[in-house]
Model the fold of this input.
Amino acid sequence: MPTAKNTVCIWYDSEAEAAANFYAQTFPDSKVTAVHQAPSDFPGGGKKGNVLTVEFTVAGIPCIGLNGGPQFKHSEAFSFQIATDDQAETDRLWNAIVGSGGQESQCGWCKDRWGINWQITPRVLTDAMAQGGEVAKRAFQAMMPMRKIDVAAIEKAVRG
Done:
């Protein structure tokens, strides 16, 4: 069982292990730590011996993937926000998610093939927003039409 006092539990139809392995390969400070099989059949069509839960970390955050079946869907109300240091890191993470069956959204948001939402957010953007005032306004206006965040465009907006 996880040692953290608080662990994020993410519901998957049946592919928690595949998702956890993808995250471990894609994000720094991420790994799969345990895979647990169901001790008996369970609701949602699960059978004894199927993978029931997977313990993993995503960018240092402890998680449990639960293979619970198709009854609950993900929404943008929950997302992982990953801070990136430059355009290369932004591109690598964005392309990994979108290029592996995911889909783009607006303002640095994308969704992986399992329906989990991600915000791939360059630090230059969050730093500009934290400054407030005109800098934040310019950065925000530059970001609004973007899908994947363009670091150079945000830096230009910050400079005015």
Observations:
- The domain at 1-70 is CATH 3.10.180.10 (2,3-Dihydroxybiphenyl 1,2-Dioxygenase; domain 1).
- The longest strand covers residues 51-58.
